[in-house]
Design brief:
- The protein has about 290 residues and is an alpha+beta fold.
- It folds into 2 domains: about 130 residues, MutM-like, N-terminal (N-terminal domain of MutM-like DNA repair proteins), CATH 3.20.190; about 120 residues, Helicase, Ruva Protein, domain 3.
- It is about 30% helix and about 20% strand.
- It has a 4-stranded antiparallel β-sheet with strand order 1-6-7-5, with no helix packed on it. Strands 2-3-4-8 form a 4-stranded antiparallel β-sheet, with helices on one face. Strands 9-10 form a two-stranded antiparallel sheet.
- A hairpin with a 4-residue loop joins strand 9 and strand 10.
- The two termini are about 30 Å apart.
């Protein structure tokens, strides 16, 4: 799933390519992806792009028509950029393309989604906060007003595993499964630690790890075209998606805990004092 760093990379790429261009076409081929009907998607046609911004994991393309094209790539979505937009007709149900947007210079992009579970979402709205997912977002962890004190307040009283807190978009915007693994590894913290029980020193360490991990990942994504962002993300991971490999810090084997539709990765030596966490598929604690 694209998370804050990759989405920020997409936003910066689009901002440099489409600001000032006019929308020549906006066509949905996967009707289930379009979540709004007023204003219609056709209201974008003929308008000029004035800005491209990020809200959590949402991309927001603003136009001078007062209409925003907002999209969320979900778990298996991606953006495919074309310097020259293909002229082929998109046949609904016959292609992974969910949305095609073209501009007056001949360029454009497709939003694609792999797999059978379709969660990619497209909105045409007058204001970003009309999108329910944006309206309920928590603070952006890299925003100027979000500091250690604000982070500590978010954790106070939450008897929830810290992995879940980091992934909850209504608490902190933009962090998902992959970067929560990376943040917790950098902070040397168990994903099962309860937020409310963390000491001041642990909160300090976690906040620092979150800011540094996300900042480094955004720097790595910056200036890369969409086609290279996924590979850049994988290369930057220390534990996420690296089950069975050696931890780059201590050399221990990276382990996984599996859930219904995802998994988490961690290093026992760095994060849990050598203890192996329960594999939820087995519903028991490994000794």
């Amino acid at each position: 799933m694209p998370e804050m760093p990759e989405v920020e990379g997409l936003v910066e790429f689009l901002r440099g390519r489409v600001t000032g261009l006019h929308v020549a076409k906006a066509t949905v081929s996967a009707i289930n992806a379009l979540k709004t009907y007023d204003p219609p998607l056709t209201a974008l046609v003929g308008s000029a792009v004035t800005a491209v911004d990020r809200h959590g994991k949402f991309v927001d393309v603003s136009t001078d028509a007062g209409v925003h094209l907002v999209f969320h790539l979900a778990k298996a979505g991606w953006l495919r950029w074309h310097d020259v937009l293909p002229s082929t007709v998109i046949k609904p149900g016959k292609t992974p393309i969910a949305l095609r947007v073209g501009f007056d210079d001949g360029s454009g992009f497709d939003l694609t989604e792999a797999g059978t579970k379709k969660s990619l979402a497209v909105y045409a709205v007058h204001a970003p906060d009309e999108v329910p997912g944006i309206a309920r977002l928590g603070p952006d962890p890299l925003s100027d007003g979000f500091d250690r004190a604000a982070f500590g307040e978010l954790l106070t009283g939450r008897r929830t595993q810290i992995k879940g807190v980091l992934r909850d978009q209504s608490i902190i915007a933009g962090v998902g499964n992959a970067y929560s693994d990376e943040i917790l590894h950098a902070a040397k913290m168990s994903p099962y630690a309860l937020a409310a029980t963390l000491t001041d020193e642990e909160v300090d360490r976690l906040f620092r790890a979150m800011v540094e991990t996300l900042t480094e990942a955004i720097d790595a994504a910056r200036s890369k075209p969409p086609a290279e962002l996924k590979d850049a993300k994988r290369r930057g991971m220390r534990v996420h998606g690296r089950r069975g490999e050696a931890c780059p810090v201590c050399g221990d084997e990276v382990r996984s805990v599996f859930f219904a539709d995802n998994s988490l990765e961690y290093c026992p030596t760095c994060q849990t004092g050598g203890k192996l966490l329960a594999d939820r598929r087995l519903s028991r604690l490994l000794k």
